[in-house]
Amino acid sequence: MTQEEKFEARYAKLAGGRKQNAGADLRDRAKGAPWGLVIGDCLGSPVEFHNRTEHKWIDKMEPCSHWHLPKGYWTDDSSMAFCIMQAFVDHPRCFKPEHVAKNFTNWMLHGEWSCTGEAFDVGMSCRNGIWDYVHDKSLKNGNEHSQGNGGIMRFAPSWFIARKLFATKDEQIALMHDINDITHNSSVARKTITTLAEVFDEHIAAGRRTALETTAKDWRTANNSGWCVSTLDTALWAFNTTNNFHDALIAAVNLGGDADTIGAVCGQIAGGFYGFSSIPKKWLTDIKDWERLDAFIDRFLDMTL
Asked: What pTM, to 2 d.p., does this model score?
């Protein structure tokens, strides 16, 4: 059996249809989104940059040889999400995007919220946006070419903060866009933020499944690039073609390519639907400092829900 045939057989076992009912508890669904981000990031990083079938099949936490990380160590996706959460925890009454940009800077230059004590895997648009903030306090990086997936990979905290601070949908979306624009100032990136916010509205706030369809038809046609549009499309495909958190994440990360971010976005979507309680305990406890992270996420949700 060829490697492609092996992948085909494994993906066939994951295709279980769509579960229509979300997790019953709002807090559980809410907690599932940020934790799903971290889980997907850590599951996917070992096969990041690998071609679609030129890697071992991932179904558990593995070390990441590319970044020389033990299993359960997160990358920039989670670090930047923690930076956003920390900005609100520190400034709940006067939160501004500047607080996020400052935390991004502390991460990139000083390793805050890195699992290793120093930043690595910093995307070009994120790096440029942070340097723009360092040099001239700019909160807008790039132009219409800034269409990477850096805004959606770290999205979940922005949704919670925006809903806490603003009553109207327009105000909420504007804040989510402002946080995105620190590193990815393009209308295309903002559109993916708006779409992902709609998914969160359905999954977490309303407790019902998104009706969004995808252009991907199967694992071969799912785009594993770092383009924000394809990352969201592929993450939704993995969610739509499975019926539980575990299988959705396995379907997402085994595509290779930008696997950590595809996993992080799928984890947010699936976690927000199935809930924190759906995450396999072994995956959770394999995460570095998972109890500290769990307490921090709980504190953030206590302040935003």
From this structure: 0.98
